Amino acid sequence: MRSKLVVGNWKMNGSRAANAELLSNIVAGLDGASAACAVCVPCVYLHQTQELLAGSPMKVGAQDVSDKACGAFTGEVAASMLVEYDCQYVIVGHSERRAYHMETSELVACKAEAVLRAGMTPIVCVGETLEERDAGQTNAVVSEQLEAVLKLLDEADVAKLVVAYEPVWAIGTGKTATPAMAQEVHAALRAQLRAHSAEVADTVPLLYGGSMKPDNAKELMAQPDIDGGLIGGAALKAADFLAIIHAAR
Ligand code: PEP
């Protein structure tokens, strides 16, 4: 059986003072029975987050990474740098990166590979826009996005992935996919993984993201192929994030 995983994505939010309050309240609310959890913070806050989470079950993560190892790539951050801050998870291919930074599925796959080479876990995001859903293209879109990653990695690396299904129309909008809608896409992603490798299909965690909140988290995570959540807005409120983590038990 897969255990549940809940990951917060702070996006471009935070300040040293706000982070200290948020993280200390989250840490205080975790207990031995809490589901596996992590926060993906802006890079400039990795050191602070590493220090505040030291010894806690909450792991540290980043929101993006370069596909390059080092060198003349102004503004970029390498996977080897993230490791130095105890990062265990790195989000790659978030829809905001795909939309605003023109990231292709091939680039996202290279980023996932860079994360793996550095010994961390990539959280590969896939998801369709509202226009694509309305045109009946949901499965084709997410399948193309995942396939680029499956094509580049060998089976042992695919086994180390986390995949997050995040319908673009549900991110930050307050609109959530119904549990049945989300489960349908998760089942298709699981089938795609199975076609690639029957060995790993049942072990790769598939997270749902898109306005997951305390009041819908339990029902979403009760679906057979939903193994946790990638949480944006609700991860910025300690009480909400903790309620989602506890709903994942
Ligand atoms: C996200 O940014 O990955 C996300 C799921 O955001 P929200 O929970 O705010 O919809």
Explain this structure.
- With 249 residues, the chain is of the alpha/beta class.
- It has one domain (5-247): TIM Barrel.
- It has helices spanning 16-29, 46-53, 79-83, 95-100, 105-117, 130-134, 138-152, 155-158, 179-196, 198-201, 214-221, 238-247; strands spanning 5-9, 36-41, 58-62, 87-92, 121-126, 162-165, 206-209, 228-231.
- It has an 8-stranded parallel barrel, surrounded by 6 helices.
- The relative contact order is 0.15.
- The model has no long low-confidence stretch (mean pLDDT 97).
- The structure holds phosphoenolpyruvate.
- The site of phosphoenolpyruvate has 14 residues, from strand 8.
Q: How much helix, percentage-wise, in residues? A: 40-55%
The total count of strands amounts to 8
Q: What is the global morphology?
A: globular
Q: Which percent band covers the strand fraction?
A: 15-25%
Give the strand order, joined by hyphens, for the main sheet. 1-2-3-4-5-6-7-8
Bound molecules: phosphoenolpyruvate
User: Which fold name is given in CATH as the topology?
Assistant: TIM Barrel
Distance between the terminal alpha carbons, to the nearest Å?
A: 13 Å
Compute the gyration radius: what is it?
17 Å
Show unreliable segments.
none
* Mean pLDDT rating: 97
